[in-house]
Design brief:
The complex is a heterodimer of chains A (192) and B (407). Chain A is built from six helices and seven strands; from the N terminus they run βαββββαβααααβ. Chain A is of the alpha/beta class and 192 residues long. In chain A, α3 crosses α4, α4 runs parallel beside α6 and α5 packs antiparallel against α6. The model of chain A has no long low-confidence stretch (mean pLDDT 93). The radius of gyration of chain B is 21 Å and the shape is globular. The chains are: A alpha/beta (192), B alpha/beta (407). The interface between A and B is medium-sized, with 20 and 27 residues. β2 of chain A pairs antiparallel with β8 of chain B, so a sheet runs across the interface.
């Protein structure tokens, strides 16, 4: 990974693209890293294509422009592939992680990868089975942590738990479900 | 000796424990919580909404002693803040863009009455057309309103500047309202690493507000804002100018004390690799951080590039800036607002004025950029430094350009 890692999350309004960027930023901070997490603000509405971003570095980050050349692209919703050019600007040695029920080999045909590495995870199925709803952001965060090594497994679990405990004080089942989703993501993410 | 070590160890521990991931709005609201003003009167507006929203939750949760006044407009927000301040309270509000514009006549009244109100503003474009994104046109319009005007590069600076602003505004020889700004969305909604100070340290640093006179002091009755015609108005405006000009030294004193206590250094502007710089960019706010990356790259390639980030726009540091720029061959000002008259934005006018009496003047140019939140990236800033090298080599220049616009 480069000294400064840029991550672009593609999702649809309501899938937690903004929240997952905040979760990742917080988890990386608790490992002593410097971070940024920011969504792209537009006329957001449920179901519309949205993006959010992270920058993670061992050094302080001063750059404040858009992240146009990410090292990692995470696609929370495979129906965005086509209508949205998800690999636009992706670094030549960058990687793509897609939430899909297809195998990595099948998904590879749909993307303009140009030799770049692809990982897949059926995060929607995992989310439905663990959280009870198709909110694929935390399993995809688990997949990202596993394939990039940007944050340690135990940091991610502890930090996500802490963060969700604040947000879902009255829904403990949501917290457990999310943590189970992260575990499964670690075991089930595939490479091409 | 043992005690010193203990304290140092404790301080180091405290520092790491207080490192947080916060958005600009969260950092500013947190600073306000630690300042714990007597009165906050506010009305929400994007992208400053969260400041007011988070602060009102601090009030509801009993974490601050503030009287929160939920007003019906920004004009009323500033009016209520003025009233509270005139009554001797430490009073704050926060806003952006159209809300700031609606405060207009009251901004001048706050300054004319010499009320030390501190107001964070999340810089945003002005309508029309409707745009909610980062742009410095809103507060730039108030440059002659008599408010001290401090810009912040990131969330950390917004937090630090707001705490310092209380001391600056309330200094008896300053007694001026003070704006602390950050770029809308780019900073206000981006989560970054912010080192938070201890509550007690902020409390001690800002101290207690002891106004010299208030309208509620019945033993020493005074009138504020009375008629002031041809007899004294001019003298009062002259005194206002004098207070603003003299504020510079107090801003620096407060910065020096802040650095001594908390280790972070602030000045009227920041010089980045300016020592032997031949080509300099002058900019305000978040773009300075992106430009620093460009300066590093150019320096690595042997180009003598430098950067000045203006922190204090009012009072403007004319002499200090001229001193810093006098060795440069060419200087580009980046303006995130436009004067709409063919001579660039407001920063350009000030920088030109600062250098115009130098014996050996650098060639100056302006780039209006980023209006309505339009992104300014590394390549664009690189192109500015490339222009500066050509200008220095040929002596030819385009005085004002629009950077990143589709002409």
């Amino acid at each position: 990974m480069a000294k400064l890692t840029e991550i672009r999350w593609h999702g649809r309004g309501g899938q937690g693209a903004k929240t997952v960027a905040l979760l990742l930023g917080d988890a990386a901070l608790s490992e002593g890293k410097y971070i940024q997490a920011f969504p792209e603000y537009g006329p957001e509405r449920t179901g519309a294509p949205v993006q959010s971003f992270n920058r993670i570095s061992n050094e302080p980050i001063t750059i404040h422009c858009h992240a146009k050349n990410p090292n990692v692209v995470v696609v929370l919703d495979p129906t965005l592939i086509g209508p949205v050019d998800v690999t636009a600007g992706l670094a030549p040695d960058g990687i793509v992680i897609v939430n899909t029920g297809l195998t990595a080999a099948e998904m590879k045909k749909k993307l303009n990868l140009d030799g770049r590495k692809l990982y897949t995870l059926d995060a929607s199925t995992i989310a439905k089975e663990t959280i009870g709803r198709d909110i694929p952001n935390t399993p995809m965060l688990g997949a990202l942590a596993k394939v990039t090594g940007l944050i340690k497994h135990e940091t991610l679990v502890e930090d996500t738990k802490k963060k969700l405990e604040k947000k879902f004080r009255n829904k403990p089942e949501v917290i457990g479900g999310n943590l189970k989703a992260i575990e499964r993501a670690y075991n089930e993410v595939q490479s091409d | 000796m043992a005690k010193v070590l203990d304290d140092a160890a404790k301080a180091a521990q405290g520092r790491s424990a207080l490192r947080k991931a916060l958005t600009g709005n969260e950092a500013v609201a947190y600073a306000m919580k630690q300042i714990n003003p007597d009165v906050v009167a506010a009305y929400p507006i994007t992208p400053a909404t969260e400041i007011v929203q988070i602060y009102s939750s601090y009030v509801a949760d009993g974490l601050v002693d503030t009287e929160f006044v939920a007003v019906e407009s920004e004009h009323s927000a500033m009016s209520a803040t003025i009233g509270a301040s005139a009554a001797g309270a430490r009073a704050m509000t926060g806003t952006a863009s159209q809300g700031f514009a609606l405060m207009w006549e009251m901004l001048y009244i706050a300054a004319g009455l010499r009320l030390p109100i501190v107001m964070p503003v999340t810089n945003r474009a002005l309508s029309a057309p409707i745009n909610i994104h980062g742009d410095q046109s809103d507060t730039m319009g108030a440059r002659d309103a008599g408010w001290i005007h401090i810009f912040s590069e990131d969330s950390q600076e917004a937090y630090d500047n707001l705490i310092q602003a209380i001391r600056i505004a309330e200094h008896p020889e300053v007694s001026l309202p003070t704006l602390v700004t950050m770029d809308g969305f780019i900073i206000s909604h981006a989560m970054e690493v912010v080192d938070i100070l201890e509550d007690a340290d902020v409390k001690n640093f800002v101290g207690t507000y002891k106004p010299e006179r208030t309208v509620l002091d019945i033993d020493n009755p005074i009138t504020m804002g009375g008629l002031d015609f041809t007899d004294y108005y001019f003298e009062h405006r002259r005194a206002l100018a004098e207070a603003m000009i003299n504020a510079k030294q107090h801003i620096l004193e407060v910065a020096a004390d802040f650095e001594k206590k908390f280790g972070r250094k602030y000045g009227l502007f920041e010089e980045y690799k300016m020592d032997d710089a031949e080509y300099a960019v002058v900019v305000l706010g978040s773009t300075a951080g992106t430009a620093k990356v460009v300066v590093d790259d150019l320096r690595a390639a042997g180009v003598k590039a430098g950067l000045i980030k203006i922190r204090v726009f009012r009072p403007f540091p004319y002499d200090e800036l001229a001193e810093s720029l006098k060795g440069c061959k060419s200087v580009a000002v980046l303006d995130r607002s436009d004067g709409l008259a063919g001579r660039g934005g407001p920063v350009f006018g000030e920088v030109r004025s600062a250098v115009c009496d130098l014996e050996k003047k650098p060639l100056t140019v302006d780039y209006v950029y980023g209006l309505g939140g339009r992104d300014i990236n590394i390549e664009m800033i690189k192109s500015v430094y490339k222009d500066l090298q050509e200008i220095a080599a040929t002596g030819k220049r385009t005085l004002v350009s629009y950077l990143g616009v589709r002409d």
